[in-house]
Amino acid sequence: MSKKMKDLIPEYCIKTLSTIAIVAIVLIFYFVIIKALPVIRNSGLGLFTKTGFDRQIREGFASPASDPMLTFGMLAPIIGTLLSTLLALAAAGFLAIGAAAVICEMSPRSLAAVLTAIVRLLASIPSVVFGLIGVMTVVPFVEKLFITVDMQIEYLMYFQMTGRNMLTSAIVLTFMIVPTIISLSIDAIRAVPQNQREVGYAFGMNRFRVIWKIVLPSARSGIIAGMILGAGRGIGEAIAVSMVCGGNAYIPNIMHGFAALLSPVLPLSAAIINKSEAMSAPAVESALFACGAILLLMGAILSALARIIEKRIRRRAGYAD
Predict the structure, then answer these.
(1) CATH number of the domain encompassing residue 44
(2) pLDDT digits (tens, 9 = 90+) for 20-67
(3) Which residues contact 42 (CB under 8 A, 6 or more apart)?
């Protein structure tokens, strides 16, 4: 075999595998959209603006196959997904950036290596384990700490207040996505050249100011990438969230104050899990695939957002696109 052929084989293999991956992604999108199309076509914009998802699932399951009920409103699951993820992302980002800075900038090398290994191990734990921990510890903790009998009576006309709610979902999601953000933030911070830190010290900055003014701004592209990846995992998480979210497609009312955090929610991913037992009905099957289509859309938006942010950061840093 000639040297030229040996060089071409890896190139063709990479191109073939890349093509297979692209085709697989396109087929997944196509399959999900085709399955969701009956509900999307019949619901129109009401799919994103109307409520009543729990009732509609019951009606869709009871409707005959010859005349299925295909009008659904998924505003409540969409809002439940966004609120739970944003709350978790805010908490996880705060914890992750601080932890990454401590590991990289303040810990001895031996301790930093151990902590980094632990973080990467936590990132690989299956989500169902986090769900079990949430059910056994977070749910009773939230119920005991925040929920009283008077509150349950006061809000009974709106929802049943239990330890399974949006706050619990956000807490469980926080501990699920924080290892991922820490891991990527560590890589980003370690990629900052040492001479940039030395410039800060030369100007009389202490360690904290060097981290705050030099290291973190220089590592922001990697940190933002970690945040976006964490958001993607939070939006798509199903098993753990379905175990602690409450399973009720309710839109939290900000007029209730802190009690809004204690209301049950039904994120899109959890809806697919919780309502899957009714998928024997064509209407419910199409509705759950519509949930999947919306999740794919959110994932695509996050990917596009990550690309836009990366371009802006590179442009400000003086790099060509």
Answers:
(1) 1.10.3720.10
(2) 989 998 999 999 999 999 999 999 899 999 999 999 999 999 888 888
(3) 70, 71
pTM: 0.87
User: DSSP characters for 76-107?
Assistant: HHHHHHHHHHHHHHHHHHHHHHHHHHIIIIIS
- Dihedral sign, CA of 279, 282, 284, 285? positive
Inside any domain, residue 321 = no
Question: What is the domain extent for residue 86?
Answer: 3-316
- Across the range 84-108, mean pLDDT stands at 91
pLDDT digit string, tens, across residues 280-292: 888 999 999 999 9
Element (H, E) at 175: helix 166-190
Kindly report the number of other CB atoms within 10 A of residue 121's CB atom: 10
Neighbours of 320 (CB within 10 A): 5
